[in-house]
Design goal:
By secondary structure, the protein is mostly helical. 45% of the residues lie in helices and 0% in strands. It is built from three helices and no strands. Helix 1 packs across helix 3 and helix 2 crosses helix 3. The longest helix is centred in the first third of the chain and has 12 residues, at 16-27. It is extended, with a radius of gyration of 15 Å. The N and C termini lie far apart (54 Å).
Length: 75
Amino acid sequence: MTHVQSNSSKNTAFKLSEQVKATLHEKGYSFLFNYEDYKYYKAQAKKTFNKAYTIAELFIQENANQKSDYNGYIF
């Protein structure tokens, strides 16, 4: 029987900060992410069900005057 070793540095997809970054990227607001604001929003979203989505929404709401990355594209 072989034992599988996991390198924790490669398993970053489950980190809350990485989930928030991915959500912001999907919505076109990847440039908004910074760790100082992330820590603040994380404390606010402590009791929510989907923390990553809630934190991403807080980033977007606080920066409502910023345009999305997709704003310049014609669809």
